[in-house]
Amino acid sequence: MRDLIKASNLTRRAFAARIGLDESKLSKSLSGTRRFSSVDLARIAETCDVTVDWLLTGDTPAVSMAARASGGSARSALEAATRFSATRADLATLGYSQQWRTPPSRRVANRYADEGRDLAHWATEVCGESGPPATTKDLSSLVEAVFGADVAVVDLDSDFDGLAVSSANVKLIVLATSPLPSRQRFTLAHELGHLLAGDDQDIHLDRDVFDRAQTRDPGEARANAFASAFLMPEAALRSAVQAGITEAAFASLACDLVVSPSALAYRLLHLRFIDAGTCDRYKTITAAKAAHMAGRGDEFARQVAASSTTRLPGLLVQDAYAAYEAGKTTLRPYANLLGVNVDVLRDSIEANTVVDGAS
């Protein structure tokens, strides 16, 4: 702490004033006769441009180190993850930990893909009354509500689909905005599969979840199998094909599940509900064409607009405000998440109004 004060180029008295303490209280805290409060730590972190988690542990999260070490599109993706991860880790130190739902010990399957499907079966069951993921349009909110992961959608470079961050205090999924709703949805399920399987502790980057080369990676094979089974459960598909799977019925089913026709075709082929020739024919249908065939063009347009829009991690925003209301931290973490000026936000809250973007 003394090194931080020295690096701030402030006198001890000025530093104390900056964090809202008198000099004697700061001296007592530095000597160990007084404990820094959570608000003290939050203000010190803001003043010194560090995190509360770093003040308490001295550890730099792996995602932060990766962000500094990476360049190009990877850097922008990791910087987004760093921002959310740091806030989540700080909130955890204040008693606002994620309620992450840990899956039970899974059976050791002969193939990683089988493990992914087993995990998807469990995940579908725990969704329970929240609704089956296959027909839930707002999958991000479902993942947050049921599994406890933070889900954000941000503008990333075009060669990134998303990433997952996993640590003791952070379970985070960051998705890229996309004009392809089904691709973004599959990426979300894919990253959830990585988190539930415990793959790549710290961070997992996915440039292209549909890259065929990924099938050679056991973790990717498991995550893809999870996503396919989670979004296109066998029971639902079996029921849908009982009356026959004409091209029109296929297009309507792809719209119902908000999955790409190619992903649906491969899933039906894997389950032996269609033959290879039918798969080859159906997989060439685009999502836009499927929507047109099903008479659901307006619905598809709304989905494109939604998947092209950024989204803040709802649970994280909720916890940041709760910590502020409880007097455990300052308003700045909440303001930073919303992307608004902290003074404007404070005035707005005090006036009991809502500023644009803070609703």
UniProtKB/TrEMBL annotation:
Domain of life, source organism: Bacteria
Recorded GO MF terms: DNA binding
InterPro entries linked: Cro/C1-type_HTH, IrrE_HExxH, Lambda_DNA-bd_dom_sf, Rad_response_metalloprotease
Gene3D superfamilies: 1.10.10.2910, lambda repressor-like DNA-binding domains
SUPFAM superfamilies (UniProt xref): lambda repressor-like DNA-binding domains
Domain HTH cro/C1-type as annotated: residue spans: 1-55
Family membership noted in the UniProt record: Belongs to the short-chain fatty acyl-CoA assimilation regulator (ScfR) family.
Name this polypeptide is given: HTH cro/C1-type domain-containing protein
Species assigned in the record: Actinokineospora bangkokensis
